[in-house]
Each structure stands twice: as structure tokens, then as C-alpha cells.
Amino acid sequence: MQLKDKVAIVTGGGAGIGEAVVRRYLLEGAKVVVVDVKAKSELESTYADADKDRLLLLQSDITKRESIDEVVRSTVDRFGRVDILFNNAAIFDMRPLLEESWDIFDRVFAVNVKGLFFLMQRVARQMIEQGGGKIVNMSSQAGRRGEALVSHYCASKAAVISYTQSAALALAPHHINVNAIAPGVIDTPMWKDVDALFARYEHRPIGEKKRLVGEAVPLGRMGRPDELTGAAVFLASADADYITAQTLNVDGGNWMS
Ligand SMILES: NC(=O)c1ccc[n+]([C@@H]2O[C@H](COP(=O)([O-])OP(=O)(O)OC[C@H]3O[C@@H](n4cnc5c(N)ncnc54)[C@H](O)[C@@H]3O)[C@@H](O)[C@H]2O)c1
Q1: How many beta carbons lie within 10 A of that of residue 131, not counting itself?
Q2: Candidate from 63, 93, 190, 221 with most ligand 1 atoms within 8 A of CB, to mutate
Q3: Contacts 24+ apart (CB under 8 A), 155-160
Q4: What is the pLDDT of residue 257?
Q5: Whose CA is nearest to atom 42 of ligand 1?
Q6: What mean pLDDT value characterizes the chain?
Q7: In the chain, at which end, N or C, are there fewer CB atoms within 10 A of the end residue's CB?
Q8: What pLDDT digit, counting tens, does each position of 112-162 carry?
Q9: Does residue 26 carry a pLDDT above 90?
Q10: Domain map (residue ranges) of the chain
Q11: What is the CATH number of domain 7-184+224-250?
């Protein structure tokens, strides 16, 4: 067990990659705080089979300043500390670059950038008091290059890479490692919306974009959420003590860097 008795906060832990990481962190011996905007009842039913002694479910919206404080306070009240932040919650949206999109900009940046940054800052203050910790931010292959239809989401994920680098430098003296993961195309609930949006803007049948992006991956298919969990454990563990400021691609070979 690589994370025995570590205390981890996982945002967006109610579905997809976040849920897979919560389950793997529990298997690795961690105590886990699931933070998700989904209803508490939904989170309870998702984790009905999990060990309640090592799990705290928080319905919380990371775009709200008071929620960020509350997440860290509740974690410390219940488990006494925070060793790991898996900063994963995000939303996807897209629209052609020349069309009106102030609404998309505000929503996407509120969750993917503002929420991620200020939760990282709040958790880092707690980790400094404790003498160290591990922060893993979720970027994307979308943060490596722009896309004509997906400008705001791509920019938000590029911002995650940049904040990861700045935070890694600022927090290095405090023994806090800050890294990011850049997944490629992973078969999660998010892809239902992504596929539907591409169908609309590229005039495709539903399901075609999802099939094509999977076929284009060098390893020949989309990833599964559980295939992100190895990197999520590694970067949160003592094995990554000498790694910071990096963004690790977990994408079947889509991006080479
Ligand atoms: N699925 C992919 O192909 C893919 C690719 C690259 C990067 N990513 C990134 O991986 C991460 C997880 O993606 P996923 O595919 O599992 O997404 P998902 O939509 O399946 O799950 C995201 C979870 O985040 C929660 N969430 C959304 N807004 C929130 C908020 N304001 N506060 C708290 N929780 C909130 C949602 O309720 C949901 O449970 C995201 O950062 C995403 O950008 C995903």
C-alpha cells in the first residue's frame, strides 16, 4: 500500500477519473475526502460499497470561496491533516472562436482555473503548517495545443500547466511537490457532452467523434479512467519526492514531449 494513512482530497470525485482515483487511493490505504458538486445522495450511492471509516463525502462547488475554506476545514476536522490534493474537477464546453462565448469563458475558467488555483493555495497553506505534501493538478492534452472549436477549455488546461510550474517553484522550499497529469481521451461521463458538442458543430452523427478520437490514439483506443490511477498514485507517493513542476502525459502516445 503506497499511501497508507495519507489524507487525500479528490475534487470531482463523484464520477469519471476522479471516482477511479478515489477508489485506488482507498485501496492504497489512504483516507479520502471526495469533493463534488453532485448531490450528497448521489455521492452516497456511488460510494455505498466503500469503507466509511476512511471516506468523507462533501457536496461542494469549488468555484465558491467559502466552499474552498470549508473543504479544508472539514478535512482537518475529520482526519487531522491534508497530505495529498488531487485537483481534478473541471467542466468542458466549446463554441466556434468567432461566436459570442462570454458565458463559456466565465464558467470554464471559474471551475478549471479559479477553483483549481484557490483550492491549491488554501491546501498549500495547510501543508506548509504540516511540513509538506503532494499536489497533483489535472491538465489535459488540450493544454498542450489550441483547437479552433475548443479555445477556452484548451486555454484553461494550459493555465493548469503554468500554475503547476509556478506553484512547484513557490512551494519547493516547503517540501510540497506540485505536478500535473495530462490525459488524452478517456472514456468518462464527460465524453457524452464532448461528443454531442462535436456532433453539433462538426455536423457529425452522435458517437462518430468519440470513435474517431479513439482510433487516432497510437495505442488504438480511448483510455479507461482506471488507467489514470497509476500516475495519480505515483505522483502522490514518496516515489515522486524528487519530481516537481512536471506535467505527465497519460494518453496512449497522443502527445510527445
Ligand atoms: N475524459 C477525458 O477525456 C479527459 C481528457 C483530458 C483531461 N481530462 C480532465 O480530467 C478531469 C476529470 O475529467 P472526467 O472526464 O472524469 O470528467 P467528468 O465530467 O466525468 O467528472 C468530473 C466531475 O467533476 C465534478 N465537478 C464539476 N464541476 C465541479 C465544481 N464546480 N465543484 C466540484 N466538482 C465539480 C462533476 O460533478 C463530475 O463528477 C478533468 O479535469 C478533465 O478536464 C479529461
Answers
A1: 10
A2: 190
A3: 156/90, 156/108, 156/109, 156/112, 156/113, 157/90, 157/112, 157/182, 159/109, 159/112, 159/113, 160/112, 160/113, 160/116
A4: 81
A5: 90
A6: 98
A7: C
A8: 999 999 999 999 999 999 999 999 999 999 999 999 999 999 999 999 999
A9: yes
A10: 7-184+224-250
A11: 3.40.50.720
